[in-house]
Write a structure and sequence with these properties.
Length: about 400
């Protein structure tokens, strides 16, 4: 009896049934297939050899003679984590400390690392760029990056998309029927332009029946500026002949104290959505904390990375719950703009590309506001005039 690289050599028919090998050898995965189908085993007339060939590898508590089978069984179910179970900490080159830094920076799953830029990852986790590249490559192999879908499947999902009325017909028309579910709609503009008012109105409208432009659902509001006012909800609800108290019970508000907290609250919202039919997620404001906490050029990559993660978490929430995501954003002056409006929304390309619809709100005469649709995947640019009155948002 001897060992050979290609697998086991079969026992001699006349010899002892299956003598114990001199030493157990660690097999590579590549060897596995060969173990049970090594040629001599197939032709042998030994009943034991034939049994070995077809029998599944035995479990624990075996006799000495079964030792070979036992080891094969161990190798057949290696202790490597499956793709579904793998976590950031399982990536080569990522120790517990690095994993913690990554999680703190908002990289919570393999996909977020798989799509990260090497420079960004190197910075937040104190890694060299070469190591960061290796980590990203490993994450790409383990992460479920998703597959392709055919147009008809996407069309089917699009058929589920609901539209939530803003309270203004003109604004609804500009948005192609209202604020869409499974998308992020961003409202940006200077202070007092009516962003928070629109968020309050949406929180009331989402509870209304579908025939009235609602989604018959609850709303989660992540309030970063402490501007949620139940009194305002009461005014708007009463204007629509709704029971204000009941309306308030379907609004779940959380104050976010900093950007980190803001990110955690989306996870909480996901938990809440298991209990209630949440059809609207409001973030008012999306960028205020990020803007205040990350000052200066050096922190830009970090800020944009986190903002990106946050927005994608929101999008995932929208997809999972068929909910609309409405976010507000501030503007900053762009001093080098010689022509046109010098104000720009905060958050740069990350927010610009992730928000599906962008609306720019401007104050106009007599309490009117002009909403301009800046970016949409299937609607033309255009403007609508809305009024912010005591009853809420109207034409
Ligand atoms: N009860 C009300 N009745 C009529 N108009 C109101 C009422 N409450 C607020 N407004 C209008 O809404 C404006 C405030 O708008 P809003 O709070 O939505 O601003 P914003 O865009 O969120 O600003 P910021 O960037 O400071 O958060 C007020 O200036 C006022 O014109
Ligand atoms: Mg506001």
């Amino acid at each position: 009896m001897a060992w050979c690289l290609g697998g086991f050599r079969a026992p001699r028919v006349s010899g002892p049934p299956y003598p114990r090998p001199p030493r157990l050898r660690v097999l590579r995965e590549a060897d596995l297939g060969k173990v049970f189908i090594s040629k001599p085993a197939l032709v042998t007339s030994s009943p034991r050899a034939r049994r070995l060939k077809f029998r599944p590898p035995p479990g624990p508590g075996l006799t000495g003679r079964d030792r070979v089978g036992t080891d094969v069984a161990k190798l057949a179910t290696p202790e490597v984590k499956t793709k579904e179970k793998a976590d950031i900490g399982d990536l080569p080159g990522v120790g517990p400390a690095t994993a913690e830094k990554l999680r703190e920076a908002g990289y919570r799953d393999l996909l977020s690392i798989a799509v990260a830029a090497p420079g960004e990852l190197a910075e937040v986790a104190d890694l060299g760029e070469a190591v960061a590249m290796k980590v990203i490559n490993a994450a790409r192999q383990l992460a479920d990056v998703g597959g392709f879908e055919t147009g008809d499947v996407i069309m089917e999902r699009r058929a589920q998309v609901g539209k939530l009325t803003t309270g203004s017909k003109a604004l609804d028309e500009l948005l192609g029927g209202g604020v869409e579910t499974q998308s992020i709609t961003e409202f940006y503009g200077e202070f007092g332009s009516g962003k928070t008012q629109i968020m309050h109105q949406l929180a009331v409208n989402v509870q209304r029946p579908k025939d009235d432009g609602g989604l018959e659902g609850h709303v989660v509001i992540i309030d970063t500026e402490n501007t949620f006012r139940p009194e305002r909800i009461t005014q708007m609800a009463e204007a629509l002949d709704l029971d204000a108290k009941e309306v308030l019970t379907r609004i779940h508000v959380a104050r976010a104290f900093n950007s980190h907290h803001q990110m955690l609250l989306v996870e909480k919202a996901t938990e809440l959505a298991r209990e209630y039919p949440v059809r609207l997620l409001v973030i008012d404001s999306l960028t205020a904390h990020f803007r205040a906490e990350y000052v200066g050029r050096a922190t830009l990559a970090n800020r944009q990375g986190k903002l990106n993660t946050f927005m994608h978490d929101c999008l995932r929430f929208g997809d999972l719950n068929n909910a609309a995501i409405a976010v507000t954003n501030q503007v900053h002056a762009k001093p080098d703009a010689f022509f046109g409006d010098p104000t720009r929304p905060v958050g740069g390309h990350v927010v610009g590309h992730t928000a599906t619809f962008r609306l720019y709100l401007r104050k106009s005469k007599g309490g009117r506001r002009i909403a301009r649709l800046i970016d949409s995947p299937h609607l033309p640019e255009g403007e609508a005039v809305i009024n912010v009155i005591e009853d809420g948002i109207r034409d």
